Amino acid sequence: MPSKRDVGIVRELAAQVAEIAALPVQEEKRELWRKLNGLKPDRPMVMIDQVCWNEMNVGDEMVMRCEDPECRGYEGRFRRTLCQWRHFPVDMVVEPFVLVHKAIHNTGFGIRVEEDVSVTDPTNSVVGHLYANQFQTEEDLEKIQTPRISHDQAETDRRLAVAHELFDGILEVRPWGADPYLSLWDPISTWMGVEGALYAMIDNPDYVHRLVGRTTDGYLSMLDQLEEQGLLCQPQSLVHCTGAYTTELPAPGYNPEHPRAKDLWMFGLAQMFSTVSPAMFKEFEVDYTAPICERFGLVYYGCCDPLEGKMDEVRMIPKVRKVSMSPWVDEEVGAAEIGRDFVYSRKPNPALLAFEVFDPDLVRKDLMATRKVCDKNGCPLEMILKDLSTFRYEPERLFEWARVAMQVAEG
Prior knowledge:
The protein is α/β, with parallel strands linked by helices and about 400 residues long. It is built from 12 helices and 14 strands. The strands form 5 sheets. Strands 1-14-13-12-11-10 form a 6-stranded parallel beta sheet, sandwiched between helices. Helix 1 (about 5-20) runs parallel beside helix 3 and helix 11 (about 360-375) packs parallel to helix 12. The longest helix is centred in the middle third of the chain and has 24 residues, at about 205-230. The mean pLDDT is about 95.
């Protein structure tokens, strides 16, 4: 077990989290998310995620003090939760439990990424990648292996025992299985590079079909194994940076000891398809991701990929409930295409926090434009600020963005 000092630090932070989690506002926010995800919102919802925490040390709030690695992991989680609650909570929900990840081993597809990395700020995990193209011959296709899932029950039991020692009487300890993120093209882009993959779709489409087909089969097998071994997570609080609360999940027959894909949200995307035609989007993404999404209860689709010109194809993907509208979409077109059928998941441009001079009025204008176009078209709306690689070491910019965003949402 860790030292008394480390235990004391973690338990004190956990107690602060538990006190916040017990506030009535947490259930009020859950209900607001349920209404939005049911396409009958009371108001737009706001979330902030993927923050550049290396720039966030306000009054030493983020200084880590534990020495034991396991305690430091929990300490980091709690410090981020408490910092966000104090300074930029928007519509976050603080839960009265701590997740303990099961010791699940995934062999993956058997491909080791080959890349060069470019670093601008050594304290920041956001870096540039230049990937080598490892798929150019028929023989290269044989590199793709079927993922194999296994579970180290003894290690899971050990992790749970430590967590119970740390948190019993303060926070519920909740075993947490795999929360599937099954993008086809994010991994392929690291195996080939985006340019290599895009050219291959034009020059050798049959080859690409075989490649993405093998990847799809691998994901479906992986999902089978996770279900059979009872290793999927329970219904989520979050799906891709947004509230996942819903009255529609879990599905009838749910067993918390043996969750199924249909009890969960799935997150899908094809970010590198931003520049391809709707026809190619359907041919190389929709036709392959559809059987994966069909397995799940609800689907959040899209990320940084502009989808306003591909909504006919997005509608072919089963179970979609939320559709991402990235900073590069034509918002008028996107809102008209989405209407009342999906949640319009707007990603405001994070660059507004990185300019030399921060302008809150520009933030308000940007968010109001989204609100007006969604009001006009009846779109259920969420505004999700993410992908923050820098705010120039001025976290007050983020706090002000949060204040303005809540005024727009509640106004």
